[in-house]
Amino acid sequence: MNEVSREKFVGNICVGDKLNLLPHRLLQLGQNKIAVISENNSGWCVTDIDNYAHIKEFFSQQEIIFDESLGNKKISLINSLWDFNLLEKNGTHLGKIIQPFTPVLLVLKITGNCNFNCSYCYDYSENRVSKTISIDKVKETILFILLKNRGMNLVFHGGEPLLHFSLIKEIVEFAAEAATNKKHINFLIQTNGSMFNKEIITFLDKYNFGVGLSLDGMSETTNAHRTVKSGASCLEIFNKNIKEYGDFLRRRSGVVCTLSKRNLEDFPNFTLWLQDLGFRGVTLSPLSIAGKGINVINDLVSPEEYIKLLTILINMVKSKKIHISVDSINKFVSSLVQLRPSDLCHANPCGAGDNFLLIDATGNYRTCDCFYHDYFLLDNNDINLALDKRSKILDRVEHMKNHDCSNCAIFGFCGGGCTSEAIARNGIDKTIPELSCKVKKFFYELLLKEFAFDKERPLFAYYARCSKSRDPRVKPEDDTQERARG
Ligand code: SF4
Ligand code: SF4
Ligand code: SF4
Description:
The chain is of the alpha/beta class. It has helices spanning 49-61, 72-83, 94-98, 135-148, 165-178, 198-206, 234-252, 267-277, 303-318, 327-337, 383-386, 391-402, 411-414, 419-426, 434-453, 458-470, 476-481; strands at residues 18-21, 24-30, 33-38, 44-48, 64-65, 87-89, 104-109, 151-157, 184-191, 210-214, 253-259, 281-286, 325-326, 356-359, 365-366. The strands form three sheets. It has a nine-stranded mixed beta sheet with strand order 13-12-11-10-9-8-7-14-15. A three-stranded antiparallel beta sheet has the order 5-1-6. Strands 2-3-4 form a three-stranded antiparallel beta sheet. The structure holds iron/sulfur cluster (SF4) (3 copies). Residues 114, 116-118, 121, 123-124, 158-160, 192, 214 line the site of one iron/sulfur cluster (SF4).
């Protein structure tokens, strides 16, 4: 059996424990290998078909009560299945046990206003453009989350959040002071970079901000959607920032690129350009039909075009041309390697309304901001209620499991895909979101096959290298290289 040895941090199996194999689905990988994938979480392992048959038989006989007389071979199997998150012990499993420790991601939509006028802006709405977030609500929410959790990721978003730098300062200083008793806050900001000055850069550096910098390419053509209200060019702004704050940006920022037909072909070269500039990461975000995106529908990339681009990037990673982190690749590897995916869109159910919460510029709590729809609106006054109210998301997952996704082997990784995309594209939540569905099928099958058959495991190794270079707290060798035993 190929084993996935995740961190061994929780609960050994003890004598008398009642054990059950969790519901799971199978993905045929070829050459007698299958991936066994938990139906309701991201547990998985790769094994031989014959070995799987033995496991099935063992667990189908009767309820298994753990006892040392089971023998070393069976005990080792049981421990492995527990580590893979494929086993239930006394009604719980590993994924459930570690869940409460996930930091909450609180996104603050500081303003609906922006000094850019991007033709695809998913966030734009006439209702929000003149609004600024309520500081009292932000403070109340931060205190509530810190009280209930070990830590949080606080993301400043917009519109352009740095139009209100003094507000950001006030929130950061408040949060940093509130985070006593070993609570930890990571600060992040998504910005177009146009408001940077020495004071802002010094402040962001002081509080160890992670910065997402928006740019769509290395030419004016590829940035054609990103117009600036003052008439300046967003590329010129970017180049000026590199010149003046290059050291800070290389250390702290990654580039976020909205993918459309305008920059699809150029993206591999853009990645190499960012790599030469010294950036550590780039994230691809396909243009969506939310907000103003509805007006540029002809520039949407199809799932097939996106997968073709990903294939080119993967080949560049394998041939070691790319060493910068393409986060849109690494997030998939990460969701296999980590027991509970750290990327909230890769969890099942996704993080919307659970460990992901946002306050929009008009003061509403929302479970997700990728598409402004009442579906994602939460009770607006009571934070106690807000964090519990995602029953619609959970209902959808259950529905998708038994209907449109009933035959999909990777349901445990996916949970029925992105609800926001489903509503934006199809108008209904309980439908397949075509883009995320096709991309997930492509990626997970590719990665599981690489895991099963390619000794070098180039994409797992790439993830390990990138994680190491970006976050010294991560020990990637523990995560991947030791994952295959037997
Ligand atoms: S920079 Fe961002 S918030 Fe501003 S218009 Fe462009 S997409 Fe919208
Ligand atoms: S609804 Fe979609 S975009 Fe929102 S958190 Fe879930 S997967 Fe992510
Ligand atoms: S949305 Fe697609 S990939 Fe996800 S579980 Fe359903 S069928 Fe599978």
